[in-house]
Amino acid sequence: MTAATLHTTFALDRLTQLAEHLSSTQFHSLLAPVFGDDLPATCYQRLHDALRNGTVRNPSHRIAPELPGKACYDNLTRCIHLHPQLIADARQAPQMSCELATVLLHEFGHHLDNLLRHDYAPLREQGTTLAEDAALEEGARFAHLFSSAAHSQPGLHWVARLVEGQRSLSFEVEGQALQVYLSQHQGEQAQRIEAATGSREGFSAGRGDKNRPELSWGHESIEEDLKLAGFNAQQRHAIYFGNWLRDYSQLLDPKLVRAIDAPKDFPAKLSREVLTQLVDLLALRAFPKLQETPQGRSEYTVTPQMLGVYRPSEHIDNPFNPSPAASDPRRIDPDFEAPVGKDDALLQVDAKTSMKRYISTSVEFMCERLGVAMAEGPTAKGLREFGAALHVLEDYFAHSNYAELALRQQGHDTVLTWTAQADCTHGWPVVTGMFGGSDVIASLAEPMAKVLFPVSAGFKEITPGQRADEELALLILLRDHPDPKWQEYLKTSLEVRDTLADIPGFNGVRLVSWILGSPLRGVADLTKLGYQAILNLAGNTVDDIQTLTQGNPMLTGSTHPTHSQLAKDHDVHPLHTLATLMARVAVREVGFALYKYWEGGRLRDPVKVARAFFTHPNDSDWQHELVRKWASEHPDNIRQASDASVFEKLQIPHTPTVDKSVWERLAGLFD
Question: What is the pTM of this model?
Fold first, then answer.
């Protein structure tokens, strides 16, 4: 069978058109913020000349089934690798050509950075060029250029041609639709995350919640497989919303939530209502298409009951709290789960199943959510509950040692199990990790702070009455400040600004002020306050899990690893793709069963299908061929999964920093 090939000059053509209409100076001004001021002007001059002369080398393009993500650019071979699913999506749904075009622009941005730094840059004294790579995600910055109306063109545009033997298929994209897609998917969040491995730089789509690069397969990208079961794009988005909510429920940790009868202690603790409203604001940004109508807004408004609080059973987390002085979190809010001490039966390994007993509580939660989804049908609630159930199913492979044990079952005996042996059928039990404060920082709090409070945002014009996300978030946060003058100051500042914004020329004055960095800084300082408040919340959760659980459980005789030792959510973990492949199989199977159930079929019970995946790998065979094939293709990953030093590097504590002088400046406002 002839291999398919993709032919495209789309990204090169778009850049060439820009160069033809811009002077060398204008071209430099446009691209310097994308690729860096460390590149001398001569680099951009040479690129500008080469584009006008038609001598810029286009990268090669290869369809790569083995790729773990959607796409990547190899700096050594100067080749863009594309996953076949990306092509298949564009074939199946013409609107998905926007995604293909976005990926091509993004990866071409990496190619341009490579050319600028190696082909067009002057040599240094030792014969080397400049830094190997631009800071953060230049691919997303380059793609985002074309979200501007000034750099986009209306009408249909040819993107690429797919050739399969004697047949060929062209992909086209509508200019305005692409402009909107680029704005949504290659914005600030995508530009902050760099997905690079060795010489390859991946595609970062900035989707969803939780801060994950597209080279990594997170909850949302895994659930894209539900299209194979028949779910349309709107339904998949609604399903992911339910999954996303379970992620963000982790922010409502007992160490962060202020009890209803406790005095306000901003920013050390926040009320459940305020935290829920912040998540609702984030949901408006992450799921705008679900909330475009009054009915949609009503169905997807995040409420305390919908979001819930952090409960280990909803994430297959080990509920053990190693602190001897741990208090009962139900005193703060009755929705928290009871504390679990070292002698609790839930922490024991079931001798027959060779699994920790607390895992069964997560399975029951999943089955309950699936039961509600089955009864509700494909409504907003039914889809949301299905997403909540899938969160547990996917986390079984991402947060347990199932993948490690599956490899050992096939003879890879050096792979670390992250647990001591136990008195059970298979010796090595299935375990999950304890979720600690550093995990909250890494997965939720800091990215949330950056989305709601972009402290280094560029100049934006003011429209009277309109509120930016950071201003809305501040109005929510300051409800929990013990001194009401803080919120009144913000409200008054915004009202005065609205009045001034009606004066002709006000935005011009603001632009000069912004450039000089002098007046009109009050609200900007409050933005920094909000940013730090959320980071403080995360910092407050760093507790005994970090200090009382040290070392490799295989050596210490423990069956209580930490979440960080097991979590495979990100592509830096050597077993990330294996865990992803198994999760995708499970999601597809349960998705097929539920879709058929909603259509009236009763041949397969979705609850039974989902429950069957929760076994020790020695007691199932569905994964054998998948694991065997993956292992044969990833010997380096297996070696890394057998080396404890690899994981020590992945667990370096992360401490975000902010401008703490903001506290003193703001306090002076009320003296």
Answer: 0.63
